[in-house]
């Protein structure tokens, strides 16, 4: 959604102003031509009508068929590439990276074909503009009975319109892209009153955020919770989970338990299946065998394998290793945690829990963090992402390599702060750093990386 808003912001001036300016120039040139030689007026009107109406209409029709396809192909490439990079160690260990590269190559080939078709259409239109203006200049020079000086001026005006038409054509070419971007934006009638971009359902496709949905009875007419409704989550359990990609087993017979008030640490070297296990936990991936169950606050067990990732919104919140920090303020980044903008007090509480007490005031919320958090330190950036996750109000918090890229002192301080603030939550932490484990943690160790020679048998 952020990219769509950026596209609209950039495309509006590029598509609306050039055609308007070009039309005014053609009108001015036509009036001048009529004053110099009235017989030339018809040629300039015809030239303007063809190159500002007919040709752009044909270009828009051709581009409309291609613009949506180009956008969809780019989104698919970005989605596949993002997921592949996140699971690169598992893919490499199991020697299936060639399949992903093949998929990317196919998607890029489709995108390239559409881009070439678009460039070809635009090139033909540009060629027509130059030929039409040159031909008009020749006709005026040959047919006008005006003095030589007047004929020269008329011919030069016709040739000069080539650049004017080219500018308008480039704007018309981008109109389908503007329409596609506008269609992707949310309905303004459904936006929150505050005007913030808090209608976003998630920070990114990979980051599981939650909302302030009323969990007491969102699907039941009488307000009571449906029979299969998760009334809070007190515990999660994997039993004999076996899962992999394609025909390659990555994790076999995995047992895992996570309960409210405790920390479950899923550790192991890169390539041992941490990402794959996490994908099952978040319901992004179905296991080949085994069970995945949750116990709610009423003591009722639920089969999590029957639920989709959307069903876990508000129940399980994931703070990914590379959480995106938007080019905005602290407040703007935290506002994305819920459907409606959380209050300042809620934001203050989340910041304190994440160890950012210095920002827990109005001035701190308005602090500019820069593009991707470039105006703040790495530790602050990670803590901000954690605070955003805490604001979801989820019962289960999943921390994916929360200390990655942090020095030892900063990493230890972050984990110590989180252990204090998450005492009433169920916490699952994925890490390769076994030094973060403390007494009382439920530890699931996936071991060391499988040697390359044995990777095909994992």
Number of domains: 2
For the biggest sheet, the summary is: 5 strands, parallel
N- to C-terminal distance: 39 Å
What proportion strand? Answer: 5-15%
Which stretches are low in confidence, meaning pLDDT under 50 for 5 or more residues running? Answer: 189-227, 450-458
Cα-atom Rg, whole angstroms? 30 Å
CATH class of the largest domain: Alpha Beta
> How many H/I helical runs?
11
* Spatial arrangement of strands, main beta sheet: 6-9-10-3-11
Molecular shape: elongated
- How many runs of DSSP E, i.e. beta strands? 11
Q: Would you give the CATH topology of the largest domain?
A: Rossmann fold
* CATH superfamily grouping of the largest domain: P-loop containing nucleotide triphosphate hydrolases
Helical/strand content category: alpha/beta
Helix content: 40-55%
Task: Give helix and strand order, one letter per element, not per position.
Answer: HHHHHEEEHEEEEHHHEHEHEE
Mean pLDDT: 79
- The CATH architecture category of the largest domain equals 3-Layer(aba) Sandwich
